[in-house]
């Protein structure tokens, strides 16, 4: 279960960003999330992991290396991934940090449709946004 939830988080949030999108920080983050959904559906583990900060750690004790291992295992088990995401809130702090709350429904070959709520904390490094930590749970849970 822990792997399944982390997988939902990662594939909904990360992307292979090849440059800084034009526009506001909020626009950049929305593009980052959209591209993350595409990367997840293409099962592009490397692109997703590249968006995770080297300093990533979450309440469950997962590190960036753990994220990579979980993605590897889950992409091997699922030849297809379909996501439906909805941003509930997006706050940018001084154009250097952000918090995104989103709902994600996911379906894979070996995964039933599962819907979770995530709170992602991002940090701008140079011209890119990186995930530094995340919380997640069922839709009614307090995060």
Pick out its properties:
globular; single chain; 4 helices; 143 residues; four-stranded antiparallel β-sheet; 4 strands
Could you explain how this protein is built, in words?
The chain has helices at residues 2-13, 25-41, 45-49, 64-77, and strands at 81-93, 97-108, 111-125, 128-137. By secondary structure, the protein is of the alpha+beta class. The chain has a four-stranded antiparallel β-sheet with strand order 1-2-3-4. Strand 1 and strand 2 form a beta hairpin. It is globular.
Task: Find the count of extended strands (DSSP E, 2+ residues).
Answer: 4
Helix content: 25-40%
Task: Give the termini distance in whole angstroms.
Answer: 18 Å
Largest sheet: 4 strands, antiparallel
Return the average pLDDT rounded to an integer: 85
Spans with pLDDT under 50 lasting ≥5 residues? 15-22
Strand percentage lies at: 25-35%
The radius of gyration over CA amounts to 14 Å
* Secondary-structure element order, N to C: HHHHEEEE
Give the count of helical stretches: 4
Structural class of the helices, strands and pairings? alpha+beta
Shape by Cα distribution = globular
- Spatially, the strands of the biggest sheet line up as 1-2-3-4
In short:
By secondary structure, this protein is α+β, with helices and mostly antiparallel strands. The chain has helices at 2-13, 25-41, 45-49, 64-77; strands spanning 81-93, 97-108, 111-125, 128-137. Residues 15-22 have low confidence and may be disordered.
